[in-house]
Structures are given as C-alpha cells and as structure tokens.
From TrEMBL:
Family designation: Belongs to the NrdR family.
Gene Ontology biological process terms from the UniProt entry: negative regulation of DNA-templated transcription
Cofactor note: Binds 1 zinc ion.
Native organism: Leucobacter chromiiresistens
Record function comment: Negatively regulates transcription of bacterial ribonucleotide reductase nrd genes and operons by binding to NrdR-boxes.
The ATP-cone domain, residue ranges: 46-136
Gene that specifies this protein: nrdR
Name this protein carries in UniProt: Transcriptional repressor NrdR
C-alpha cells in the first residue's frame, strides 16, 4: 500500500477493525518513511455477470430498484427494501463465490421477497420466471399455499432469466 502523502511503497498496519457489519475491514496504517498515518478500507468484491456478458459490481441499490416495482402499492417501506437487499448480499457472499450471473441474484431475491410480501413475490416471480399463463400463476399460488412461511421451493422455479 503506497503512502498517500509521500508515495513510499510500503506501510505498516497499526490497527484493524471490521466495519459495515463485517463486510469490510478498516485498517489504520503508518508510513515507515514519513511517519504519517492513514486509513484504508478493504472489501471483498462481488461482481455480477449480466446476460450481455458485461461484468459490473454487485449493487444493493440495483436489487432494491429491481424489487421496488413488484412492491408498488404494497405495505413495503424503503427500509424493508434496504434490509432485503442486505439479506440478498449476505446470502450471495456466504456462498464464497465472488462472481455471479444476474440470474443467480434473482434467484437469491425470491426467498427473501417471499418472506417480506407474498403478493410482491408473485409479481417479481411472474416477470423473473416469465409466467406465460394463468396456470403458471396457479402453480405458484399453490406452492405458496402448500408451504406457507417457507422460502420459495426450488422445484417451482424455472430456468429462464429476467430481462435486464
């Protein structure tokens, strides 16, 4: 790590602490050349591969905006959406993989959205899983009735991707 003051190519870590609920590490460093101290923040990067092949960093805001339409008119607050986005990020990070397809992010959203609001879940799933008929809605509703208070069943998902 280069010193931001004198550009010396090395520094010594004085103190390390977790930040952002354990998602990053804050380090206090000291330059052995000029003796000045500075702070760095380290995070493990999460990237998303879109269908077009473009790779971009994971964004909680994009998760929130993707789910916001499904929650329109429902008793879901911005704080609820922020918590959902955090839960989705935690679930994908817990896998230990640093790069995900956009489709996998959508699959990670479904169980959290189902817990938050079942109507919003159906709306999101209908677009994400490309429902084509009333039968698709019927089977999704039957799944909700058969397994109340459970995350979305894996067998009820399709392998199609949501448009981006």
């Amino acid at each position: 790590m280069h010193c931001p003051f004198c550009r010396h190519p090395d520094s010594r870590v004085i103190d390390s602490r977790t930040a952002d609920d354990g998602l990053s590490i804050r380090r206090r460093r000291q330059c052995p050349e000029c003796g000045r101290r500075f702070t760095t923040t380290e995070t493990a990067s999460l990237t998303v591969i879109k269908r077009s092949g473009v790779v971009e960093p994971f964004s909680r805001e994009k998760v929130m905006s993707g789910v916001r339409k499904a929650c329109q008119g429902r008793p879901v607050t911005e704080a609820d959406l922020a918590v959902l986005a955090q839960q989705v990020e935690e679930s994908v990070r817990s896998s230990g993989i640093a790069q995900f397809d956009a489709n996998e992010i959508g699959l990670a959203i479904l169980p959290h959205l189902r817990k938050l609001d079942e109507v919003a879940y159906l709306r999101f799933a209908s677009v994400y899983q490309a429902f084509e008929s009333l039968a698709d809605f019927d089977s999704a509703i039957e799944e909700l009735r058969a397994h109340p208070n459970e995350p979305a069943a894996r067998g009820a998902r399709r392998d199609t991707e949501q448009g981006e």
